[in-house]
Design brief:
With 349 residues, this protein is mainly α. It has a domain at 110-238. The chain has 13 helices and 4 strands. The chain has helices spanning 2-16, 19-62, 66-79, 88-124, 134-145, 178-187, 194-205, 209-219, 242-245, 251-269, 273-279, 283-305, 308-334; strands at 222-228, 233-239, 339-340, 346-347. Strands 1-2 form a two-stranded antiparallel sheet. A two-stranded antiparallel ribbon has the order 3-4. A hairpin with a 5-residue loop joins strand 3 (339-340) and strand 4 (346-347). Helix 1 (2-16) packs across helix 4, helix 2 (19-62) packs antiparallel against helix 4 (88-124) and helix 6 packs across helix 7. The relative contact order is 0.13.
Length: 349
């Protein structure tokens, strides 16, 4: 199934001609297909939450008779047309799909980035004998020192980001360093052809003097400072040449954190008043406060350390969740379930 998702993403990228927009459209299609399952899951969870007071009442009444308690609970579920597993089943279907979707995005991003590097190496570093050497790299090094990265070829930009395969950050270069390429090559051997593998492996093998010169030529466009904290020194990089060293403006990581906060607030506001009051008396209230800040901080961190394409996906999913949560909550609030008790009386929760 990963292959199907990869082909779908490749097809979208070929149509729109930009990987950043391809990721957004790809994510939109997948989330739209999964939306009915999401609605069903939320509806079921709301129904279960609405039954909590009645379930507690049955527990107090028949707590000493487990057999009768189970029978009464079964009758309660049946009369209200609720299944304890119905809220979990859609989630069990969604999670594998999302994991496969993420794997497809990761493979395609690695393949496109390595292809970009392959074309760059063939054009700038290889001689007639198809051999990479420091001597062959001299014109490239001179260009990099002068702030010219045109020899790298056209990067796949998206909105304000100059290269979607690098993080949206002030402190990340537009083109990857030798060390970053070597790491990517090690992790992505299965997604490239044998010819690309041979050339890129030769490039990665020249990680001595060549790597030092290429990375130093890039690093020359940035000033380094250290900020003294209590127990450590925090390195700070200030770019001096934005055309080489600044790939983005930190907009996507910030948006990831802000949208995560909004999403968490909206999800908490989506529950019924009864469930909210019950939550105040449980450990889940304390856990909720922790998660309220953990997920936004985690979102900022992962988008800072990942490619801009992945950060765009992360922000889009958050925005999608905010919009759909708001719409689903409005819909379910208008159709609040009624609880039918043992005597078949309707009680509005």
């Amino acid at each position: 199934m990963t292959g199907f998702f990869e082909n779908l993403l490749i097809g979208i990228n070929q149509i729109v001609g930009n990987y950043g927009w391809a990721v957004i459209i790809f994510s939109l299609l997948i989330k739209a297909v999964l939306l009915p399952l999401d609605i069903k899951s939320r509806k079921s969870m709301r129904a279960m939450t609405a039954l909590n007071p009645k379930m507690e009442e049955l527990k107090k009444r028949y707590g000493n008779d487990q057999e009768k308690f189970n029978r009464k609970m079964g009758e309660l579920y049946k009369k209200n047309k609720v299944s304890p597993l119905s809220g979990c089943l859609p989630m069990l279907i969604q999670l594998p799909v999302l994991f496969i979707m993420f794997a497809a995005m990761r493979n395609i991003a690695a393949e496109l980035q390595l292809t970009q590097m392959y074309d760059w190496i063939k054009a700038n570093l290889m001689d007639a004998g198809e051999f990479i050497s420091l001597e062959n790299a001299q014109p490239l090094l001179d260009a990099l020192r002068n702030g010219d990265i045109s020899s790298f070829g056209a990067t796949d930009g998206w909105l304000w980001v100059k290269n979607v395969f690098q993080p949206d950050s002030f402190s990340k270069t537009i083109i990857p360093t030798m060390q970053e390429l070597s790491t990517l090559l090690t992790q992505s051997k299965k997604v490239i052809s044998a010819e690309m593998m041979e050339v890129l492996s030769q490039y990665a093998a020249n990680t001595g003097e060549l790597a030092a010169n290429v990375d130093a030529a890039i690093a020359a466009h940035c000033d380094y400072f250290t900020f003294n904290l209590l127990f450590t020194m925090l390195p700070i990089k200030i770019p001096t040449n934005w055309s080489v060293y600044v790939n983005g403006c930190l907009i996507l990581p910030v948006l990831a954190g802000v949208t995560q906060v909004l999403q968490t607030k909206l999800m908490n506001a989506g529950g019924s008043k009864a469930s909210a009051a019950a939550a105040e008396n449980t450990q889940s209230a304390a856990n909720g406060k922790f998660m309220k800040w953990f997920f936004p901080i985690f979102s900022v961190w992962i988008c800072l350390s990942s490619t801009a394409a992945f950060a765009a996906y992360w922000v889009f999913v958050n925005v999608w969740s905010i919009v759909t949560n708001f719409a689903i909550n409005k819909y379910l609030d208008a159709k609040a379930p009624q609880i039918v008790d043992d005597e078949k009386e309707a009680i509005q929760p």
